[in-house]
From TrEMBL:
Example of a GO MF term: phosphate ion binding
Name used for this protein in its record: Phosphate-binding protein
Lipid bilayer topology: Lipid-anchor
Taxonomic placement: Bacteria, Bacillati, Bacillota, Bacilli, Bacillales
GO biological-process terms attached to the record: phosphate ion transport
Family label: Belongs to the PstS family.
Keywords: Cell membrane, Lipoprotein, Membrane, Palmitate, Phosphate transport, Signal, Transport
Matching SUPFAM superfamilies: Periplasmic binding protein-like II
Compartment(s): Cell membrane
Function: Involved in the system for phosphate transport across the cytoplasmic membrane. Part of the ABC transporter complex PstSACB involved in phosphate import.
Signal sequence residues: 1-19
GO CC annotation: plasma membrane
C-alpha cells in the first residue's frame, strides 16, 4: 500500500458521477511523484495489464493531489514503464494547462466552467468529469482558541466577505477577545477558495483580501498552528492529519441550527453543511484512448484506488459511482 505522507490539499467526495464530458484546463508548478519499479500487479481489480509504457501528466487541485499522488506511486510500482508526474498548482491552473494541452488529467475541487468547456471545444477537445471522493472544507482555529469552537455561517461571512470591517474577534461577538484575527486561506486559483466564497459569502471568488493566501495547505496549517488568534480553512484531510495542532470549528447553518463538526460521518451523510463537497479528476477524452492513461484511471476508480482514497484521509464514494466512472473509460 501507499507509504507516502500527505503533503498538500484536502480530500473531496463526489456524490454522483456525471456521464457527460466537459472541458478543462491546466495548472503550473508541482511535485513529481517519481518512478516506481516493480513487477506484476493488479491494475483494475481483474488482470494485470502487461507492457504499459508512457507519460501521464496531472496537475490542478492541491486538495485532490494526495489522491492522485498516492495512486500514481502505487500504479508505477506495478507498471515500471509508466511515469506519472503529479503537480498541484490549483484547480484553475490545472484547467488552464489541460486547455493548453500541457497535461492529460486535471485535478479539480470544483466543476469545470462553461467557458473552460468552450475553450476546450475550440481545440476539438473535451474532458470527462469523474468525481473521486468527498471532502468537507474545514474551518480551523488555534488550539489555544477556546471561544470560537462553534460559529454560524453568518459570522464566517462577517469575517471573510469582501470589504469586511471585522478586525477583532470582539467585532464578531462582543464577549470574544479584543484581539486581531489573523486569517489564512487558499489562493484565488484554488477550487476550495471558489467553493468556500460561494457557500459562505454568497458570491464565488469574492473575499476579503486581508488574509495570508497559499496554494500549499501545509503553509496554512503552520500559520494557524503558530498564531493564537488565527482562523483558516482547507480540506478535511489536512485537518485530520494535523488535529493535534488545530481545532475544527463546528458550523451552524443558522443561529438556531445545531452546530455540526466535520467528520467522516457528517461529511459522508451531508449533515456538515454547507461545506461538504465532491472533488474530481478530469481526464481528456482523447487521453483515455491511450492504454496507459486508461489503465491509470481504471486503477484510481478500482478497489485499489478506493482504498487509497480512504488511506490519505478522504471519504470514498459509493460503488455505483465508481462503476459509472469505469463505464466512461470503457
Amino acid at each position: 500500500m501507499f507509504k507516502g505522507v500527505l503533503r498538500k490539499g484536502s480530500i473531496v467526495l463526489a456524490s454522483t458521477v456525471l456521464a457527460f464530458t466537459l472541458a478543462a484546463c491546466g495548472n503550473n508548478g508541482g511535485n513529481n511523484t517519481g518512478n516506481g519499479a516493480a513487477e506484476g500487479g493488479n491494475n483494475t481489480g481483474t488482470e494485470a495489464v502487461k507492457d504499459l509504457s508512457g507519460e501521464i501528466r496531472i496537475d490542478g487541485s492541491s486538495t485532490v493531489f494526495p489522491i492522485t499522488q498516492a495512486v500514481a506511486e502505487e500504479f508505477m510500482n506495478i507498471n515500471n514503464g509508466v511515469n506519472v508526474t503529479v503537480s498541484e498548482g490549483g484547480t484553475s491552473t490545472g484547467f488552464k494547462k489541460i486547455i493548453n494541452g500541457e497535461i492529460d488529467i486535471a485535478d479539480a475541487s470544483r466543476k469545470v466552467k462553461d467557458e473552460e468547456v468552450a475553450d476546450l471545444k475550440a481545440k476539438n477537445e473535451e474532458v470527462v468529469e469523474m468525481p473521486v471522493a468527498l471532502d468537507g472544507i474545514t474551518v480551523v482555529i488555534n488550539k489555544e482558541n477556546t471561544w470560537a469552537t462553534e460559529m454560524t455561517v453568518e459570522e464566517l461571512k462577517m469575517i471573510w466577505q469582501k470589504d469586511s470591517k471585522v478586525k477583532l474577534w470582539s467585532d464578531v461577538r462582543p464577549d470574544w477577545p479584543k484581539e486581531e484575527i489573523k486569517l489564512f486561506g487558499p489562493g484565488t486559483s484554488s477550487g476550495t477558495f471558489e467553493y468556500f466564497t460561494e457557500e459562505i459569502n454568497g458570491t464565488k471568488n469574492e473575499s476579503t483580501t486581508n488574509y495570508t493566501p497559499s496554494e500549499d495547505d501545509n503553509v496554512l496549517v503552520t500559520g494557524v498552528a503558530g498564531e493564537k488568534n488565527s482562523l483558516g480553512y482547507f480540506g478535511f484531510a489536512y485537518y485530520e492529519e494535523n488535529a493535534d495542532k488545530l481545532t475544527a470549528v463546528a458550523i451552524k447553518e443558522t443561529a438556531d441550527a445545531a452546530a455540526v463538526a466535520p467528520s467522516v460521518e457528517t461529511i459522508g451523510d451531508g449533515s456538515y453543511k454547507p461545506l461538504s463537497r465532491p472533488i474530481f479528476i478530469y481526464p481528456l477524452k482523447s487521453a483515455l484512448a491511450k492504454p496507459h492513461i486508461a489503465e491509470f484511471v481504471k486503477y484510481l476508480n478500482g478497489e485499489e484506488g478506493q482504498a487509497l482514497v480512504e488511506e490519505v484521509g478522504y471519504i470514498k464514494l459509493s460503488a455505483e459511482d465508481y462503476k459509472k466512472n469505469l463505464d466512461m473509460v470503457k
